[in-house]
Structure formats: C-alpha cells, structure tokens
Amino acid sequence: MSNYRLKIQYDGTRYHGWQKQKSGSDTIQGKIEAVLSRLCGQDVEVCGAGRTDAGVHAECQVANFHMEEAWEPAELFRRMNEYLPNDIRIMKVEQAGERFHSRLNATGKVYEYHLLKKDCYDVFARKYSWQMDKSLDISCMRRAADILLGQHDFKGFCTKASKKKSTVRRIDAIEIRETERDIFLRFTGNGFLYNMVRILTGTLVEIGEGVRPVESIQEILDAGDRRLAGETAPAQGLILREVRYD
Amino acid sequence: MSNYRLKIQYDGTRYHGWQKQKSGSDTIQGKIEAVLSRLCGQDVEVCGAGRTDAGVHAECQVANFHMEEAWEPAELFRRMNEYLPNDIRIMKVEQAGERFHSRLNATGKVYEYHLLKKDCYDVFARKYSWQMDKSLDISCMRRAADILLGQHDFKGFCTKASKKKSTVRRIDAIEIRETERDIFLRFTGNGFLYNMVRILTGTLVEIGEGVRPVESIQEILDAGDRRLAGETAPAQGLILREVRYD
Predict the structure, then answer these.
(1) Which residue of A123, A169, B30, B160 sits 20 to 30 Å from the alpha carbon of B13, by its own alpha carbon?
(2) Are B9 and A91 an interchain contact pair (Cβ–Cβ within 8 Å)?
(3) A9 CB near a chain B CB, below 8 Å?
(4) d(Cα A10, Cα A240) in Å, to the nearest integer?
C-alpha cells in the first residue's frame, strides 16, 4: 500500500462541504474519491485534515489516501486534475510515510475570515466575503480577540458540542488586518470545533458593531453556553488557508 | 437636465459586454439603463467610457447619464444598487458638469490582463485569468512591450478596423509584473481599439513562449495586418482598472 499526501484548493460555493454524505450531495471529498476510484478501479477513501462546512473554501487543504497500486505522484497529479471540476484543484501530490494521517498528525490550522466594510462593495469578492451593514470598531475587536488566545474550553463557540469529545482547543493567534475595503480575521490554532471560526467571527463582529461588550467573551468561555455567543457568520467568507505539521 | 457620473464595478462573466444590443442579450449598459428607467419612469441612456467586450470585467468603469428629475446622488446610489444584480455594483454617483462626457473626455485608460503561469492553478482566479500551458520568458515580453510604447497606428492589433476612423493610439506604459503564480500585463494608454488589449496580450504571450520573435512587433505595426499578430487572448483575463480624466 502506498500513502499519498495531497494539497487541495477549492471554491466551496457549490459544495455541501468537505465530508462525504449519505444523501449523495456533492462534496469535495466525494468528488476526489470518485476520481481516484475511477483511476485505480477500486474504492479509495480520502482523509482530509479539516472538515470544512458547506460553502467554506480552501486555499490549501491537506488530505491523504492509501492505494494498492503504486503511481508516480506526477502522473496522479495530472490525471486527477484532468477529471476534477475546475473549482477543485490538486496543487500537489507527494508520496507520504506509511503512517502519515492528515488529520491526526496536523499540529495547527490557519483559517481566515474576510469581511467587506460597510459601503465597500467588491463584486469579485461577493462569493468569498461577508458584507457589513455597520462600521466596526477594530480596536474593540482586537481586545476581545486577545481574551480568546491560549487554551480554553470553547464549548460556547461550537454548534452541537459533543458530550464525549473534548471541546478544549488552543488559539495561538488572531490577527485582524484592515485595508481600505476589507477586514481579514486570521485564526491560528491547534484545531477548531464545528462552526467555531464562524461563531468567533460572528461574535467579534457584534463586538465591533458595539452591540455586545468586549467582556462578553469571558462570559461565553466561562459559561460554555452557545446561546450566549453571537450569530454564526456566513460560510462563504471563510477559507482554510493552511494546515501545519511538525 | 442633471448630468450624473458613475463609477461602476462588474464581473463580466455572464454578460455580452458593456454595450446594449438589439438582440436583447444581457449587457451591463442594458442592466443599468433598465434600473434607471424604472427609477425615474422614462428612458435613460447611459454612456460608458470603455465598451468592454463580452466576458471582460471592470474594477472601475466610468459612465454618465442625463436625467430630467434632480435626484440626490446618495439616493440614486442606494436605489441603483438595490435593484442591480450582485455582479454589477455602483461604486459612486456624483453630480457632473453639464458638458461632462465619460467617453469623449477620458484622457487615459488602464487595462490589466491576468495570466496564470504554467502549472500554477488558482481556483479563485479561474474566471478572471488565462491559464498558460507553457513557461513564458518575461524578459523577451518586456523587450517586445517596449516597441509598442508611444504613438502608433495599431491597425494590425485590432479586430474589424474601421476604414473611416483613425486606428492611431498612444500607449504610455506596459508594465509586466510577476508573482510566484501570476503574470499581470498592465496597459496604460489614451485609448484602445476593438480587441486591442487582448490581441496585444496574445501576441506578447507567443513571444514569451518563444514561438514568435520579438521583432515581429515592429512588422505588425509596419504592415498594419491583423493576420500577422497573435491570437486574441480570452476575454475573461481582462479587466478595465481605471479611466483617467484631466
């Protein structure tokens, strides 16, 4: 068995997320598995580092899969891109060590959320950003972001928290970068719960709008109650930028 | 009569260009005129500075129109964007001098063509760039671009050149900017003929690929024969960046 490591870029607009679904809806994992199964004539299971939600994009998702036949990575690269739709691109195929697991071995992930400022339209970003209705106070958002740094139980910032699995994660950095038109929120951490980046973004936006105090961050962390946090920001503004390994 | 000046951004993907057509195909001008006519209850004619081809985009098109009723620019801005589809955005509405004409008064235009290098995919640029099959020699392209600078008869770089109208234009700058993934060709001039930027780009790409000598530029200029120039580059890689006025 050979183990292959993929770097994948995709526009999530027309997909029901990364993860294959029973319903047969189009998913990124489903598309890639279908192409690989067609190439090698047997079922192939592709494991992705991050299970991006429906409508979320990836600049660089990492995944791996095992195949009985040994293929040249360059040949796999060429053939996969030949058959994949043009909103999913394999950026790289590499032979990986036998035990490499894209999700379990990942030590960090970087997600970025793109906000378009009030009255700052950008037709080219319309499928990749969230248009603000109000002006945002960036300095408040930065103070709130600082409270989130470090290791915490992020149960309050998660949809459908599992009772069995840990909801403790570590956020290493939240960078808030501003241009004339845009605000980018860049989250770096050891892992993110279901909807976590979108709920963090929705909450920070409410703080920026002034409809929620900076201190509410600590209350949500303490209470672990999803109902205390802000709206889940729309999927289309979110992109998985990077998956890190040691 | 009030004269209004518009700054417009659009994604040209699903339009048959700027200019209204008899066939009733969707065009940018047609969409904007329909919205204005609906707002003020009478026919309005919108004049654009550049008649972008089908599939070409605009970061900042400039247009103007006259209306009998006097509207507040802020009100027009709001109402127009309310009714326009989300791939056409009015960026600014201003009251203009009575004699302002967006096309006749324009003194310069800046178009940019986006090439994606060989093997450098980018799903987010797929509707806004031209994917190269071969590596390009940028230094050859820059030498060829230098020959194009200044005032010339660009008849050889134009589709369906008019016999009556002048095909003399002045190119002030062609900047070729390279990133790891992209090559941007930025053309600044006093005006461009039909398909001119796309034919210039197609010709420069053939020079970059090494299938055409740098010197052929001078031959095309001298002969004024479209058949001597390169392919017309695809519309989707082109964007109107700026229209300049004194």
Answers:
(1) B160
(2) no
(3) yes
(4) 10
Q: What percent of chain B has pLDDT over 90?
A: 91
Instruction: Please give the pLDDT value at position A173.
Output: 98
Tell me the pLDDT tens digit for each residue of B203-244. 999 999 999 999 999 999 999 999 999 999 999 999 999 999
User: What is the mean predicted confidence (pLDDT) over B164-189?
Assistant: 96
B163-167, B200-204, B215-219: which has the minimum mean pLDDT? B163-167
Copy the structure tokens of residue B32: 């904007």
**First-to-final CA distance of chain A:** 24
Q: Is A87 on the interface with B (CB under 8 A)?
A: yes
Rounded Cα distance, B80 and B67, in Å: 14
- Are A122 and B9 within 8 A, CB to CB? yes
Among B53, B182, B222, B246, the active-site one is B53
| Cα gap A225→A156, rounded to integer Å | 4
CA distance A227 to chain B (A): 32
Predicted TM-score (pTM) of this structure: 0.89
Residue B160 exposed, middle or buried by CB count within 10 Å (0-12, 13-18, 19+): exposed
Q: Yes or no: say if A192 and A56 are a contact pair by the CB < 8 Å rule.
A: no
A180 to chain B, any CB pair closer than 8 A? The answer is no
Record: contact A9-B123, CB cut-off 8 A: yes
Res A120: pLDDT? 86
CA-wise closest residue to A228 among A167, A154, A162: A154
Q: In which residue ranges of chain A is pLDDT below 70?
A: none
Rg (CA), chain A: 19
pLDDT digits (tens, 9 = 90+) for A141-182: 999 999 999 999 999 999 987 778 899 999 999 999 999 999
What is the DSSP secondary-structure string of A49-84?
SS-PPTT-EEEEEEEEEEESS---HHHHHHHHHHHS
Distances (CA, A) of B112 to A154, A166, B12, B56, B126: 45, 50, 14, 11, 16
Query: Does B1 have pLDDT greater than 90?
Result: no
**Phi, psi of B138, deg, nearest 5:** -65, -35
Alpha-carbon radius of gyration of chain B: 19
ipTM of the complex: 0.86
Identity of the residue in B57, B91, B123 whose CB atom sits nearest the CB atom of A121: B91
- The closest of A25, A19, A53, A88 to A235, measured between CA atoms, is A53
End-to-end CA distance of chain B: 24
Residue A121 confidence (pLDDT) = 85
